[in-house]
Every structure is written in C-alpha cells, then in structure tokens.
Design brief:
Length: 364
C-alpha cells in the first residue's frame, strides 16, 4: 500500500534514540473533549459509533493536527483501549466512563469470552480508520496506533469499569494466579494481532498503554504485568518479520511504575518508555541509560495554571530531559492524557514552549 512520503520524521528519529534538533511533541488524548470541534462531532454520535466509523475516527484524529499544524509532531488514531475486550466478546458501554454490564466475576466466566478471536474481522474498522487517516495526513506527521496493556484491560474486564481500589482484579491475582496469567496471555495474544494489523494498515509507531501499572507492587508487576508486555513486544516484532513487514518503533507507557524503569528498559523489549510526572526526567534517564528513548512528562494539570506556569514548567522539563545537551531520544508529552477542561489556546502555548526550550542552542 503506497502512502504519501513522510515530511516530518522527528518522532521516529527520537524513538530510535537519535539526537534531534528539538524534541518532537504530541499529547495523549489530543483528539479529545477539550476541543470544541471534537464536541461538535460527538454531539451527533455515540463514542463507540465514532470508533467504529472510519470516516469519523479519521476526522477526530485530524482535528488536533489541523489546529496545531506546524507545532505537533504526531497523530494518534482515535480509538479506545477497550475495543480489545469488545473483540473478546464483552459488552462495553461509555456513559461517560466505561461500564461493563457483565464483567468477569470468577475464572469460570472466562468461558464466556470468544475462544478464537478473528481480530481482523472484529477490529477491522480500526485498520480502515488508520489507512484512511494515513492517506489524509499526506505525510505531515507520523500516525501512532495503540492498544491497552493486558493488566490494564484485565482490571477493566473484572472490575466492570474504572476503580479506585482494584479489589476485584487483585483478588484474582492472589486467589487465582494461574488463571489470571492465562487470561493475561490470552489478552496479550489479541493485542499482538491487533498491533500487527495496525502496522499493516499504516501505523508508523505503536504505543501500549499500561494505565494501571503503578497499582501493582514491584514484585507483582514483575510477575503479572511484565511477562504479557514482553509477550506483546516480541510477538509483534516476530510476526511483522515473518510477514516481511518493516518493524516500527514501540512505546510502552507504564503509568506509575517508576520504580520499574531500569528493569523495563532492560527487559521489556520496547524502544520508548513513557513516564508520568511523578519522576524527575533526569532520574528516569539515569535509570534507563541509553537503552531506550523516553516520552513525557509534564503534569497535565499545569495546563490550567496559565501561560507563565506552563512556560516555567516546560522550561524545567526540557532542562531535566536534556541535561545541558541537545535533545536526544526524547519525545515531549504530558505525563498522562490532556483533560477536558483545558483551553485549546493553552495547549498551543505548551507546544510553542516545547519548541522554544527543547531546541538545540544555535551554534556560534
């Protein structure tokens, strides 16, 4: 499939660990509710209707690229991590947060899941959205595909939605460890097929969102989350190679698992590790060395602090990531997704500040 040539490869160069003239920048949930143009589309369509309608998913993906053209260095396909539980046969509603009417209560309920998931059939609408979006981007910026990490998806499937305590899903880990590991691997295998399909459809970088990584004790993360994350990184690479499809960089965002950064850089098999705002960038770099690129990490709530606060925090972030040198192996981002109340003009200022403070000093 022929796509227009890429005009801005800053993201891909940084993901490969290269030095860049400035840090590439995008933000998680950039196609989101803070944009009035997003709200205008959302007013007429349900959330998952948009996900399942390639033309609408394409439109929402392109909205921040249009608004911030020349400032933003990546598009991320409009979709949701919970399309994977849907592919496994679970019902998911969004009103406004995710709700599973029939969650998994005991391991016996695993029988309710679809045995052999035809991922291309179940999630082909995401592939079509990616292909249409890649064409429409006309090479302006790379397109990111993504999925949720097995532990994070597992928690939603058992809790039945968001949770503050993780009581139900952790009960599974400790009471039914073997059944839990089998389910985590089963989720991982769907994720592998899904990510490979996204690359074949046109995704130029992949991100795995482990939003609840920080909810596990370090040894439980090593036991329950890390193996499925490794299974995904190795599985995607081997399947792409077997089909003679060029590999793309892979990012892991293990939110909150800041004690695990060194181990993840060493063993997880990803090119980029995303970090949240609760770790100092210079300390994260010291932990991972030059094994991986880093992505992050400004607190999203700084975007409510006004222009002076945004500029001050971006300057500080850039200094901590760069350590007095040129930007290298770093993708600027927030430490989690942008939230709905942000003024789009303040995000514009964030992008401008990243351009200014991440740039290499002009040579004398």
């Amino acid at each position: 499939m022929a796509f227009p040539p890429l005009k801005n490869d800053l993201l891909l160069r940084a993901a490969r660990g290269e030095e860049t003239e400035r840090a590439p920048v995008w933000v998680m949930r950039q196609a989101g509710r803070y944009l009035p143009e997003f709200q205008a589309v959302r007013a007429h369509h349900s959330f998952f209707e948009i996900c399942r309608t390639p033309a609408l998913a394409k439109e929402l993906t392109l909205q921040p690229i249009r608004r911030y053209s020349g400032l933003i260095d990546a598009a991320i396909i409009f979709s949701d991590i919970l399309v994977v539980p849907q592919a496994l046969g679970m019902e998911v509603q969004m009103n406004p947060g995710p709700f599973f009417p029939d969650p998994l209560v005991t391991p016996a309920d695993i029988e309710k899941l679809t045995k052999d998931v035809d991922v291309d059939k179940e999630l082909g609408y995401v592939y079509e959205a990616i292909t249409q979006t890649r064409q429409a981007l006309n090479g302006e910026v790379p397109l990111i595909g993504f999925c949720g990490a097995p532990w994070t998806l597992f928690s939603y499937m058992i809790e039945g939605g968001g949770t503050k305590t993780f009581q139900k899903c952790k009960t599974w880990l400790f009471k039914y460890p073997e059944e839990s590991k089998a389910l985590l691997n089963r989720i991982a295998d769907v994720c592998i097929e899904f990510l490979v399909g996204q690359v074949k459809a046109g995704a130029q970088l992949l991100q795995v969102f482990d939003s609840w990584a920080g909810e596990l004790a370090p040894h439980h993360f090593q036991e329950f989350s890390l193996p499925s994350l490794q299974r995904i990184s190795s599985g995607v690479r081997s399947k792409l190679a077997a089909q003679n499809v060029p590999a793309v960089p892979m990012t892991l965002f293990p939110k909150g698992a800041n004690s695990q950064l060194a181990a993840l850089a060493q063993h997880a098999g990803y090119d980029v590790i995303g970090i949240d705002w609760c770790v100092e960038p210079s300390e994260a770099r010291a932990a991972v060395g030059d094994k991986v690129a880093l992505q992050g990490n400004m607190d999203p709530n700084v975007l409510y602090g006004g222009r002076d606060a945004i500029e001050r925090e971006v300057k500080r972030m850039c200094e901590s990531f760069k350590g007095g040198k040129a930007a290298k192996a770093w993708i600027a981002n927030l430490g989690h997704g942008i939230t709905p109340g942000v003024n789009p003009d303040d995000l514009h200022w964030f992008f401008q500040c990243v351009h200014k403070y991440s740039a290499s000093a002009p040579s004398a």
